[in-house]
Design goal:
heterodimer, A: Ubiquitin-like (UB roll), DNA polymerase, domain 1, 2 domains, 5-stranded mixed beta sheet, 5 helices, 31% helix, B: alpha+beta, Uridine Diphospho-n-acetylenolpyruvylglucosamine Reductase, domain 3, Enolase-like, domain 1, 3 domains, 4-stranded antiparallel beta sheet, 11 helices
């Protein structure tokens, strides 16, 4: 079998669960997450690493899963929007703040936005408005004009 | 968008990566952050037969700093350059530049080595490494060599790298006391790339220019060094007139690019203005 036809076994931890998959090298991480693992909370928006709808955490860092090959995530630990809350039936702090501040309308960008905000708050626990806008610069929302998203994040900073 | 099929191997060492490149230089591409290559594959602008994942090569990782020099492994991400306090204590220009590259998610993956070796005419690091008088460590089948950053960029997406050579690291000398560096960028609002970016280093002694360097990106087919302006200002005091003249020399150093975002005349004008502003802020 030539290198091109060879499939690779990828082992990773996703939302705390160890999973295996056999992938072609060209398979994108977002497709592994959505199609193989059925975790469709991670969205494909632009598919060109601009919009951030596909943002997940890979080894604790927010990344755009449309621009990572699944085979390159072998051995990684991944958190998707389905894994942010320790209790599946309840929202986590960021999700709750989005809910309370009406930080979404259509909701398409929200999973990616939440993943980016988690990193933003880890990097800047006392983020000001500039830090917040800079921190979500990799996520595009076409509904809210960002104001309520910024307010939601500000509420989390204020609580700390 | 799905790339066309390719093979994938993880390089076990730098020698292994070079060997794989040598076997099929046309059909083999190195991948680390992948933030230029993967979009290119998805658009099928490139369809290599084999991707060689170089992330596991220890020699190409990390930032090491001693009393004389700094070595930055080519695999260092923009986010790591932004976060390294030790590096930014010496050269704050790294944080200043990294915060203006793309967005947090992209910075977590994209690498400085990829940015330099890819030689996108609008990438940021090429201007900065030129202004820092960096030497680029290149490793190939016959051994390693060091090339001054200002001689590395040849044309659009073209560098002095031979087909089986790898950019392994960026070497910097610690700056002389009093030397300061700044990167000014006119950022394309959609792509985040530099319409024009100007990096300037300056050290004054007794009111005269003692050391100076200029790297320009975005303006021309490749990043370049503003040597004529540096020669002109050396051992002169900085005045509005001398700064104005130096800025003009940089803007006239090469033919600027023209595209649907910015005409050549506009880019030349941005180079002049940004060089002037950079020098004024370093002189202040």
């Amino acid at each position: 079998m030539s290198e091109v036809e060879k499939r690779h076994v990828v082992t990773l931890e996703i939302n705390g669960v160890r999973r295996n998959a056999e992938v072609e090298p060209r398979k994108l991480l977002v497709h592994l997450i959505r199609e193989d693992f059925g975790l469709t909370g991670t969205h494909v928006g632009c598919d060109t690493s601009q919009c951030g709808a596909c943002t997940v955490e890979l080894d604790g860092q927010a990344i755009k899963s449309c621009t990572v090959l699944a085979v390159m995530a072998d051995g990684a630990s991944i958190t998707t929007i389905e894994g942010v809350s320790p209790v599946a039936s309840r929202l986590d702090a960021v999700q709750t703040a989005f809910h309370e501040h009406h930080a979404l309308q259509c909701g398409f960008c929200t999973p990616g936005m939440v993943m980016s905000v988690r990193q933003l708050l880890r990097d800047h626990p006392d983020a000001n408005e500039d830090d917040i806008r800079h921190g979500i610069a990799g996520n595009i929302c076409r509904c809210t004009g960002y104001h309520n998203i910024v307010r939601a994040v500000e509420s989390l900073v204020a609580k700390d | 968008m799905i790339p066309s099929a390719f093979g994938y191997v993880r390089a076990s060492s730098l020698a292994n990566a070079i060997d794989l490149l040598r076997q099929d230089p046309e059909g083999t591409r190195l991948v680390a952050g992948g933030h230029t290559l993967i979009p290119t594959l998805k658009l099928r602008l490139a369809s290599p037969a084999l991707l060689v994942d170089i992330r596991g090569i220890a020699d190409m990782r990390g930032i090491s700093i001693d009393d004389k020099a700094i070595r930055i492994g080519a695999l260092t991400t923009h986010a790591e350059l932004l976060a390294s306090q030790q590096l930014n204590d010496v050269f704050p220009i790294f944080r200043q530049t990294a915060t203006r590259i793309a967005d947090p998610q992209v910075r977590n993956r994209g690498t400085i080595g990829g940015s330099i070796a890819n030689a996108d005419p609008a990438a940021d690091w090429p201007a900065v490494v030129i202004a820092l008088n960096a030497e680029l460590e290149i490793v190939g089948p016959t051994g390693s060599r060091r090339v001054p950053a200002k001689d590395f960029f040849v044309d659009i997406f073209t560098t002095v790298l031979e087909p089986a050579e790898v950019l392994a690291a960026i070497h910097l000398r610690r700056p002389t006391l009093g030397a300061r560096f700044i990167y000014r960028k006119i950022r394309h609002p959609a792509s985040g790339y530099a319409v024009v970016g100007v990096a300037v280093g300056l050290r004054m002694e007794d009111g005269l220019v003692a050391e100076m360097s200029i790297g320009v990106t975005g303006a021309a087919s490749h990043a370049f060094s503003g040597d004529a302006a540096t020669r002109f200002l050396m051992a002169k005091p900085l005045s509005h007139e001398s700064i104005e003249e130096a800025a003009k020399l940089v803007s006239e150093a090469t033919e600027c690019l023209s595209d649907r975002y910015a005409s050549a005349e506009y880019r030349a004008s941005l180079v002049r203005t940004e060089t002037k502003r950079a020098l004024l802020s370093l002189a202040a």
